Amino acid sequence: MKFEESIKQETFSSPQIKALLNMMYTANWFMGKQTELLKPYKLSPQQYNVLRILRGSHPNKLTVHSIKERMLYKTPNMTRLVDKLIAQELVIREGCIEDRRVVYVGISQNGLDLMSQLDETLSVFDTILQTWGEEEAELISEAMDRLRTQ
Amino acid sequence: MKFEESIKQETFSSPQIKALLNMMYTANWFMGKQTELLKPYKLSPQQYNVLRILRGSHPNKLTVHSIKERMLYKTPNMTRLVDKLIAQELVIREGCIEDRRVVYVGISQNGLDLMSQLDETLSVFDTILQTWGEEEAELISEAMDRLRTQ
DNA sequence: TGTAATTAATTTACATGTAAACTATATTTG
DNA sequence: CAAATATAGTTTACATGTAAATTAATTACA
To answer: What are the record keywords, sorted (chains A, B) (predicted)?
Structure first.
């Protein structure tokens, strides 16, 4: 369905506003899709994001701070989030000896296994994303950067 | 700052994935900006969205159901949201006589006044949005629609 | 007509987002 | 070196997102 039908608004004060609202709507739509696919695995998109980051750095562990930095979304309650991942035995937490304020978090074998399962589950997104051409995608990225940094 | 610096990730498996993540990141960034600007008025983006919808239909009142439909974001707890707007005396709620299940909500004079104040406060977004050209904006809208409906 | 199905909204319960206060440790500097 | 400052992470508190259960009224239909 077209955006303007979805929110039952036919006219917008400018194409730019329409594009922005459409972008916000689509981001939320995608988040919903992701939530749905992750639900059987008892993971939220945020938790999945952390697992992705940890897999990326594996076998190196990361500090809570540097995980935060890499996250797509605003700083949630990291301690709580990591607690839940530990409860599911997907990550490991260990203190640092040199600097005792620092806590390292790493992905566990369980976590790695789950992630490869998820790769398959989430591969539907690759298909969906094919509707964007490569050049088009680069254009979109560039437009997004420009909006934020202007 | 460019997206890849923001999340400290240099390479992506495809330009499409990068564009998608950038879009999600930017949507969240924008939401943050909006939250910030609305904070002095004790309004959340969701509440603002409802006020916009109600101003759009003014002087006609809308049912809770049709407000939901028009909202940009997934159905929150409408009753609670409207309760808060009523507590701030920005909207009015009244039952329907013909169908006693239905509840109408309309914007109050207070609400209208606040909205015109907000028009000024939020006009910074119009400036930011000028970084997108008209054609570019239409391209983005079209790409968003395509992603969801593919 | 009366029972079932549907619809509209509310209520409840719980997860997550978000900010602020707090604790512990490390670093800087007078 | 001691006090002040900065940093890392945790804890707490509250707002909001989200889904499911509930209530009430309406509509369909056997």
So the answer is: DNA-binding, Transcription, Transcription regulation
Q: Is the pTM of this model over 0.85?
A: yes
Cβ-Cβ contacts under 8 Å between A and B: the total is 169
Q: Which residue's CA is nearest to the C1' of nucleotide C18?
A: A76
Cα(A91)–Cα(A84) distance, rounded to whole angstroms?
9
Which token pair is A87?
A: 């409860």
Domains of chain A: 43-148 (1.10.10.10)
Instruction: Measure the CA–CA gap between A119 and A137, rounded to whole angstroms.
Output: 21
pLDDT digits (tens, 9 = 90+) for A55-91: 999 899 999 999 998 998 877 789 999 999 999 999 9
Note the pLDDT tens digit of each residue in B129-150.
Answer: 999 999 999 999 999 999 998 7
Gap from B96 CA to chain A (nearest CA, Å): 23
The three-point CA angle B14-A65-A92 to 5° equals 85
